[in-house]
Prior knowledge:
Blueprint: E1 3-9, H1 15-25, E2 30-34, H2 39-43, H3 55-76, E3 79-83, H4 91-103, E4 107-110, H5 120-125, E5 128-130, H6 133-145
Amino acid sequence: MEWQVYLSGEIHTDWREQIINGCDELGLGIEFTSANTHHESSDAAGDVLGKPEDNFWRDHQSASVNAIRIRNLLEQCDIAIIRFGDKYKQWNAAFDAGYCAALNTPYITLHDEDIIHPLKEVDSSAMAWAKTPEQVVELLRYTVQSK
């Protein structure tokens, strides 16, 4: 069985590559998917429909276009990894976690200890909380290889 793992959240560090490379090194049968992680093109996703003058409507339009990909991939994944970084507030990641919870899709949160309190509701629905990409790799290894 090839597992589908969706990688959600912060885009300013290489945590995705660390997880993908770690799982590749172990030979795990995992296909990774993600939202568009290129900030500028994600913000401009809806511009093909006409660029609104107001930033609210531009963001709304692009969020809707991005949601086509995100919702489909979240609905198809076996598990999601939801990363919260310290540089920006990742409201989109919190939304993805809530969507996973509504779909009954298991997810693992990945974040530092200093944001445990603001993420208490998100973490309470998660199957696990990891502090490092290496821990995520080990959780995935156990999940896909357990006998």
